[in-house]
């Protein structure tokens, strides 16, 4: 039986070109900053998002933690969207490792309302923690892969910057946002003091993410990465894949978006399924199956048919399109979903 795996774009496998690049990569010791392939990737990535320097990290979670700790001091407060990945799915690292307080604000399709951010900023008072960082996630996973626009980001920057509050972008899928908005990714990253994006999701590299920012920020981030055990030696074998990802895999994300739209429109035609098509903007689809007995029942029935997906909660399902899922796979998945319903 043909398996259609829609659990996550982390299930992408490296391309043949990536495997060849691993074999041919020129290597050195990256802790000494002497791995030429890693140095090339970090420079390329920083230029791609309009920043001075880049720092390779093992994962998006590590990239966010490194960034938060490099920007803040113990006891500071960080403003985040209430269902953001940094707040929900990173094992409380900002508190456990950084001694940071989270100030969460419910977003509108993942976007932080500027007026609510303004109200959340702490005034100077000896009784309060200092608000020192504002985090934005683009695209927003829990909201269904929704895009935060450059104008929405500028509106937040106009509030944060006069207060000397730094801004960090969890841009795990920021290239999906750029493709959806038909814009250069620099328009999205412009206002941020630090940017993290992943190589190992839709870009298909096997391992790794990167943090980009100013020279000064990256020096601090490198020290935090080392403290977290993230210093790597001949890491050029991973960087080689990242280079291919940036050069060859960004533009094809539009295919994933097209497949997601096809899947979402097919799901919308099924009476027992509820989906907000306005949230289907990139490669993530979230829909409600409460009329089918809830997520657990739906996932179990679908897996027997060879279609894999994940629960968002007890009544909602998340499906993610990626390079390993073709247009034909989408048609197969829809047919099997109809059979389950």
* CATH architecture verdict of the largest domain: 3-Layer(aba) Sandwich
Classified by CATH, the class of the largest domain is Alpha Beta
The largest β sheet comes out as: 7 strands, mixed
Count the E strands.
12
CATH topology of the largest domain: Aspartate Aminotransferase, domain 2
Distance between the terminal alpha carbons, to the nearest Å? Answer: 19 Å
| Alpha-carbon Rg, integer | 20 Å
**Gross morphology:** globular
Question: Would you summarize the structure shown here?
Answer:
This protein is of the alpha/beta class and 341 residues long.
List descriptors.
341 residues, 2 domains, 12 strands, Aspartate Aminotransferase, domain 2, alpha/beta, Aspartate Aminotransferase, domain 1, 16% strand, 14 helices, 7-stranded mixed β-sheet, globular
């Amino acid at each position: 039986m043909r398996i259609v795996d829609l659990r996550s774009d982390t299930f992408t496998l490296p391309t043949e070109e990536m495997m060849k690049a691993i074999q041919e990569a020129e290597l050195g010791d990256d802790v000494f900053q002497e791995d030429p392939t890693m140095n090339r990737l970090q420079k390329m990535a920083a230029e791609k998002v309009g920043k001075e320097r880049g720092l390779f990290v093992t994962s998006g979670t590590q990239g966010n933690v490194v960034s938060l700790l490099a920007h803040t001091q113990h006891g500071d407060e960080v403003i985040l969207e209430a269902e953001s990945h940094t707040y929900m799915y990173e094992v409380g690292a900002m508190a456990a490792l950084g001694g940071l307080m989270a100030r969460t604000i419910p977003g509108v399709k993942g976007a932080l309302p500027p007026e609510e951010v303004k109200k959340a900023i702490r005034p100077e008072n000896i009784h309060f923690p200092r608000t020192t960082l504002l985090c934005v996630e683009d695209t927003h996973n829990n909201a269904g892969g929704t895009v935060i626009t450059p104008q929405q980001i500028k509106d937040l920057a106009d509030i944060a910057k006069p207060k000397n509050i730094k801004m960090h972008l969890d841009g795990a899928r920021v290239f999906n946002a750029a493709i959806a908005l038909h814009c250069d990714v620099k328009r999205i990253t412009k206002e941020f003091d630090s940017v993290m994006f992943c190589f190992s999701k839709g870009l298909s590299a096997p391992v790794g993410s990167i943090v980009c920012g100013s020279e000064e920020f990256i020096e601090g981030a490198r020290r935090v990465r080392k403290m977290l055990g993230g210093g790597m030696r001949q890491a050029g074998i991973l960087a080689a894949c990242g280079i291919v990802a940036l050069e060859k895999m960004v533009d094809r994300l539009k295919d994933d978006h097209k497949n997601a739209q096809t899947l979402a429109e097919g799901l919308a035609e099924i009476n027992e399924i509820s989906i907000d098509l306005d949230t289907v903007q990139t490669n993530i689809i979230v829909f409600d199956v409460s009329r089918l007995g809830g997520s657990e029942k739906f996932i179990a029935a679908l897996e027997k048919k060879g279609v894999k997906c994940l629960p968002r909660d007890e009544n909602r399902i998340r499906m993610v399109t990626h390079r390993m899922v073709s247009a034909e796979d989408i048609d197969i998945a829809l047919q099997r979903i109809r059979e389950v319903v």
